[in-house]
Amino acid sequence: MEPETLKERLWDAEGILFDLDNTLYPREKGVFDRINERINLFVMDLTGECVDDIRIMRKDYIGRYGTTLGGLMKHFDVHPDEYLDYVHDVPVEGMLGPDHDLREFISRITLPKVIFTNGTALHAERVLHAMDMIGVFDGICDLRETGYMGKPHPEAYRAAAGETGSALERTILVDDLEANLRGASEIGMVAIQVGRPHGDYADICVSDVRDLESTFRGVPWLTTS
To answer: What does the angle CA 20 – CA 81 – CA 156 come to, to the nearest 5 degrees?
Structure first.
């Protein structure tokens, strides 16, 4: 996207969606690594397959259905709540801590802002509580809210944008995953990647979500500190 066009898109934005895991907090905190381990254990117990075969299976499911859960529901009739409760049973309270600088920055964004996660609202609430960010966001759009479709399905983006009351083309997605950002870009959203860039699918790339403060400087919906 041309810089002037991107600037105009940011200026005219009406809503912003923040991914949770490995976006709101750094990947190095290891929370999603623990979730990933529990996903492997769940699939191992379900199928009896070895870890290497499970990784191949999950890559296939994610490519075809967007999430491991989508494939398990399709091929193994897995109940989604059983899966989600199991894989998110990780001690986030001992792995994350208050991030007052991030809280202060995001609180100054006056756009409707929603956590958009392929996890559960309960997991998101636990993360936000551990980071002392309860009350900062206007809502949570989780996998249940999207009918278990999740990113990168277009229906998931529409559901999440609906939570902010904004049209897709006036909605910003902040996420760490290539597939999610590509999906958002393809349906007209502004795509912002947090973390190491892996391609040209994002309109903006930052190494840490707090770096967006300088990216957003000057837009009418970011108040001064």
So the answer is: 50
